[in-house]
Amino acid sequence: MTRPLDGITVVSLEHAIAAPFCTRQLADLGARVIKVERPGAGDFARAYDTRVRGQASHFVWTNRSKESLTLDLKQPNALAVLRDLLKDADVLVQNLAPGAAARMGLSFDTLSPTHPELIVCDISGYGEDGPYRDKKAYDLLIQSEAGLLSITGTPDAPSKAGNSMADIAAGMYAYSNILSALLLRGKTGQGSHIDVSMLEALGEWMSYPLYYAFEGAPPPPRTAASHASIYPYGPFVAGDGGTVMLGLQNEREWKVFCEVVLRDGSLATDARFNTNDLRNTHRAELLQLIVGMFANMSTAEVENRLDEAQIANARMNDMAGVWAHPQLKARQRWQTVGSPAGDIPALLPPGRNSHYHYRMDAVPAVGEHTEAILHELGLDELAVKALRKTQAI
Does the annotation count 277 as an active-site position? Predict the structure, then answer.
């Protein structure tokens, strides 16, 4: 079995989420990913929490299938090791503080003359130029700058997304840009410089709200778990206290919803509700009609009627519900990977390919592969001991 990135070596100066998520996906496809960490503590995301048998939830999610190499890059002898490692690398990824990699001589402009096939991917909050270039950026701050907070939450209070959306967006675009750069190198023989901005990545995901507010128009209102411009679309409470999520997309579905689910076909042509725009305008009135009908039904009965009408619906799962989701189980999406604390479950990456299986190797301990990598570079035991004595590794 051959994976798409077998034979590709990625060196990553990474921490937190954006770069580790990018490189884990490269590892999923077979790339050898060498994660450079600080001696001792390692990636600071290792200490975010202790929820996974003493390990951090963020870290185990984004760091399987990697090798951990500890280097104190402030020491010249450790930086020399990194430079030696880059001689045979295909990709360098970094999301250090703005300007840190360049100060160490690790910019694309510095490396490219001697490593013309090397792809260098820099991930930052705001990009390598512009007035925000040197600002620190964390996920919540970028969610705020990109406008996500302004459209998420209730009418009374904005809310951040419950996941690291800016980091995930940046990691996804870094991943796809690296794949495209590898394809381009196959045609030209030349490496590329990739400059990924968290603001620009999340800004792309804000496209619908941006256009909704085109030329000064009012932005989408904050509507909690409901859709801001389509109705009915969101959570509705059943008579037993359960919550059903449902969504209508067109007038045909609205007609069927009235006839089969609400058992009142006359509502389909009611002058208050006979277009989506009108339903959205009169959503408070329509909400009362819907919950009034649902009050006499259990959650299961509501779901059965929605299924009968072929109206999209879902349960509002919590995390325990996702762990036990029957669809994920039926499709065998859970696998087991190793970790310093023993085997843990991990979801397979989205997308099944008929020609290969994803790489699902262990989450590394801090510096677990340091000595093996140093020996691979030709350093003998005395040289390794010297590096360890000065805490360069």
Answer: no
